[in-house]
Amino acid sequence: MIGKRSFLARKETVQHKWYVVDAADKPIGRVAVKVARILSGKNKPIYTPHVDTGDFVIVINADKVVLTGKKSERERIYWHTGYPGGIKSVKMGEMLAKKPERLFERVVKGMLPKTRLDYIRKLKVYAGPNHPHAAQMPEKLED
Length: 143
Hints:
CATH 3.90.1180.10; alpha/beta; single chain; 143 residues; four-stranded parallel beta sheet
């Protein structure tokens, strides 16, 4: 068994790339799954659970994402203000109309592992087609 060693990525050697994902006219869950895999680095062969091997993702056209079925009327988003009796909720359709960026971030965050590695900080979501990250030379991610 000499010479058989598992590869473990190190924080210093990982190269982070930037990707652009166009969410227009696509189901929110399908796009969120792809984004979550890229953020956590599970799409790379060098994936290591305790090292942040993921890449940065820019999501554009988050306001044009599609909620399939009756999710816009039935599904609710809940949160707590921190005060007694402070539970709040809003329908998914209303949140998509008012704050599409926050809805998309919340859906992706639910798909990410709950570890010390803060993957969600590498997600940039914009409602329109424009983003201020042209200097990072992001690659367009195809379906």
